[in-house]
Amino acid sequence: PPPPDRAGTSVQAPAEDRSGQPLNVSWTVANVWMGATATNSWTDAVYLSPDPVLDSNATQLGTFTHQGALAAGVSYSDSETVTLPVGVSGSFYFLVKTDLYGQVFENGATANNVAATSMAETVNLPPPPDLEVNTIPAPATTPPGPGRDSPSPTTHPGARATPHEPSDTTTPTH
Question: Is the model's pLDDT at 19 over the cut of 90?
Answer without folding.
Answer: yes
